[in-house]
Please model this.
Amino acid sequence: MPDEIERRSMPWLNVVFDWEGVAAAAAAFLAALLLGWIWGPLFWIGFAAMFAALAAGRWSRRSPPDMADGVVAPCDGIVLSIQGEEPPTALRLSPGSYVRIRITSSPLTTNKLYTPIAGGVDLITLAQGEPSVPMAFRPDDEGLTRAYVSFESAGEQAGLALSTGGFGPRIELDVETGDVVRLGRAFGTRRLGGWCDLYLPASLNILVWPGQTLIGGETVIGRLRAEFEDDFVIEVPEIEVPEPKPATVAAAPTVAEVVAEEEDFFDDYPEPDEVEAPEDPAAIFARLREAARKHGESD
Model:
């Protein structure tokens, strides 16, 4: 957690450069020095090429959210529009209603592509563009490098339609059809920006809006299977609790009953004339002496 807080407070700590980009930038810098030696203004042409190589090789470390059914942004950029639209046939998505989220990325954005949902890779199609078209000013321009990737998760599908300039190796994909990917995993590279159309089921609750800046692999766009969440709720049967019976309170005894009970209690004691007085002690001792005398004669 402290490392994550530090990276968010200082974003430059997340910046990483591909070795290919560093090598291309070094070559461009050497070319700039050579051109500058020939003619001074040519140096800036090589310097611009070095800067472009570094921008094309720049990416950032990301921390995807811990959501089993989440949908995250597939790339860095800005949401241009959100509208219902039928996906292109190249994605081969199942028939149904879909919403398209169009994302535009500038040439200075990081170059990684991230899986929008966790699941399997259904389709991959990549077509290289024409070198005469260096930038993608509009997503429908001719000669652009295009890629189509579709994903599937528990019956739900998501599709990506990517486009960028045709000059150079602009899109590279590191997955194959049938691969199982985690949410927010980097699965490819798109260099120097471009366009990304994300197609999702229309029943999805979209959590982003036009004009919002997205962070690829981290910004949550929505959740899949929101309408099926009630199926996982366990119903607890109601238990009938018997109503408690009212407690019976004994009536207080009357004064007459208390007096009668006291009279019965005292009637149990004998009267003075009914008690026999004990015998005289002298008579008792005389009987004892007579009995001892008779016992001695018998011996």
About this structure: The first helix runs from residue 2 to 9. The radius of gyration is 48 Å.
